[in-house]
Design brief:
With 292 residues, the chain is of the alpha/beta class. The protein has helices at residues 29-40, 59-62, 70-75, 91-105, 154-182, 205-223, 261-272; strands at residues 2-4, 20-24, 44-49, 80-85, 110-113, 119-121, 143-144, 185-190, 228-235, 283-286. The chain has an eight-stranded mixed beta sheet, sandwiched between helices. Strands 6-7 form a two-stranded antiparallel ribbon. Strand 2, helix 1 and strand 3 form a beta-alpha-beta unit.
């Protein structure tokens, strides 16, 4: 369903007016932050997510919401907003969803490929997710992967590679023809510091995120002649509902604090506007200097 309002939200800088932006994993967390900022900048926004109600599972994110859905929050900025519930790990489904967005909004200019997570099962996939808390009354939490490079169950390997690497690749492959028709555009993929710094644990998430860095560089080289910029961000310790409060890690970080959703949003804004017109094939860590 397409949602739109007649008036803007009073944001003076509408430099993306007339653009269409697609955000995957946009129903909560960092993806919600990207979608809202793109809407503030005047872009029409399409949100693709496997669960459009995912924000309701996490107390931190429930408290951030200003409307029932992120789609409605975006539309409050006076732009056209739509949402599609889709499993982007299914290539055919991803292609159909992207085509639907392009058809309804008239094209695509920007794609932020944010869907993913270092988890084998998300909280909203747990029994009792609809009631916010689990059977024991505690708030539900994701089941994070604890596999290693030498010992990774097949179901973990398949799941984590699918929801991170394959969703990114399938989305990019689906949007490229639409960006070419527009004569250019911007793609932002989402890696992680886990993909930049190898460790024995948290596999295969780090492997998937490292592959996204390589894929971003390759795609940037291919699409540069078409006026399409392709860059990646690599968030580090960022406060979201899914990852929880990790302020205690602040002393390890040169900037002495965990990152915020706003910290990541500002970098994405740079990468989707004309400020980054001569930047492509890059991966920008957003980690407060932790891994530099």
């Amino acid at each position: 369903m397409l949602v739109g309002t007649g008036a803007g939200a009073g944001v003076a800088d509408r430099q993306l007016r007339g653009k269409v932006a697609l955000v995957t994993g946009g129903a909560r967390g960092l993806g919600r932050g990207y979608a809202l900022r793109l809407a503030e900048l005047g872009a029409d926004v399409a949100i693709l997510d496997r669960n459009l109600d995912a924000a309701g599972v996490y107390e931190f994110e429930r408290n951030l919401m200003t409307a029932a859905t992120v789609q409605e929050e975006c539309a409050a900025h006076g732009i056209r907003a739509l949402a599609r519930e889709v499993d982007l790990a299914d290539r055919g489904a991803a292609e159909r969803a992207v085509a639907s967005v392009a058809g309804e909004l008239g094209g695509i200019d920007i794609a932020v490929c944010n869907a993913g997570g270092g988890t084998t099962r998300f909280a909203d996939e747990m029994p009792g997710a609809g009631s916010v808390a689990g059977a024991d009354g505690r708030e539900l939490a994701d089941t994070n992967t604890e596999a290693t490079a030498s010992d990774c169950p097949q179901e973990v390997l398949t799941r984590v590679l699918d929801i991170n690497l394959m969703t990114c690749m399938y989305t990019c492959m689906a949007v490229v023809p639409h960006l070419k028709r527009r004569g250019g555009g911007k793609i932002v993929t989402v890696s992680s510091t886990a993909g930049l710094v190898a460790s024995g644990g948290y596999h295969p998430y780090g492997t998937a995120k490292a592959a996204i860095v390589h894929y971003t560089r390759a795609l940037a080289q291919e699409l540069g002649p078409h006026g399409i910029n392709v860059n990646s961000i690599a968030p580090g310790i960022i406060r979201t509902g899914r990852l929880g409060d990790r302020a205690h890690l602040g002393p390890r970080i040169p900037l002495r604090r965990e990152g915020t959703i706003a910290d990541c949003v500002k970098v994405v804004e740079f990468l989707v506007t004309d400020l980054s017109d001569y930047v492509t094939g890059c991966t920008i860590p957003i980690d407060g200097g932790l891994y530099h």
